[in-house]
Design goal:
This protein is an all-alpha fold. The chain contains eleven helices and no strands.
Length: about 240
């Protein structure tokens, strides 16, 4: 690594982001961003990095981001794959404000269109809600803003409310407990509201007993081999509240 690279603004921003994501969980980097979701061999957006963040060597054309993300988020795509795809989309979208805004708009339009037709789509509401919350944790943040003009298209959007709506729509047919979606909601509410986080975390941990991929994610370490597992983080956050 050259001294010029070390002095570059891009390197400084990446270093700040890495340090935040390796801090103690109470002050950790954004949980929807700083931890990659394990999805096995499922299709998602291109990824060449060996950690949670972009490597800087990507050649992915963000002009395709909206189309590619919508293609991935089909009706049969599991929630964990949706979470990781939306996490990657957020990292790419920060480099392309036009694509960032269009993706959020398209997902919201998809959810409201289904609602208007009398066939509300839980996964569509989940997608726009989770993306909005991911955006709010990463785009336009003052501590690492690329430029003073960087804006967050999800500012003022209550993504968690959309995720709660998705959980409600899953309803009785899922026994009121879609464990992967509860896991997503638990990550969103790590900083509160307390009671809601407690409920989401308990349902996610309980549901993992019959969901091997979710169990694998809960057993993974948040920021490295010395950190808590995701399950421990959720449980400790519940017990400390």
């Amino acid at each position: 690594m050259t001294s010029q690279q070390i002095r570059s603004p891009r390197f400084a921003i990446a270093l700040i982001a890495a340090l935040l994501c390796f801090a103690a969980v109470a002050q950790a980097g954004p949980p929807l961003i700083c931890h990659a979701i394990e999805i096995g061999n499922a299709k998602s957006l291109p990824w060449i990095s060996h950690n949670w963040n972009l490597s800087g060597s990507e050649t992915y054309d963000t002009k395709n981001l909206v189309r590619d993300t919508l293609d991935i988020l089909g009706p049969n795509t599991p929630v964990l794959v949706r979470m990781e795809s939306l996490r990657r989309a957020t990292l790419y979208a920060r480099k392309d404000p036009v694509a960032a805004k269009e993706l959020l708009s398209k997902l919201h339009a998809r959810a409201t269109s289904a609602e208007s037709s009398g066939h509300p789509d839980a996964l569509a509401w989940f997608d726009v809600g989770y993306l909005a919350e991911a955006y709010k944790q990463w785009i336009g943040q003052s501590w690492m803003r690329v430029s003073k003009d960087e804006q967050n298209p999800a500012a003022g959007v209550d993504g968690y409310a959309f995720v709660k709506k998705a959980l409600a729509l899953r309803g009785p047919s899922q026994n009121g407990n879609d464990a992967q979606m509860e896991f997503a909601a638990a990550l969103i509410t790590l900083s509160g509201p307390r009671d809601a986080h407690h409920e989401h975390a308990q349902k996610a941990i309980a549901g993992a007993k019959s969901d091997p991929l979710l169990a694998q994610n809960l057993a993974s370490r948040f920021t490295g081999p010395q950190s808590e597992t995701i399950s421990e983080m959720l449980a400790n956050n519940v017990s400390s509240n």
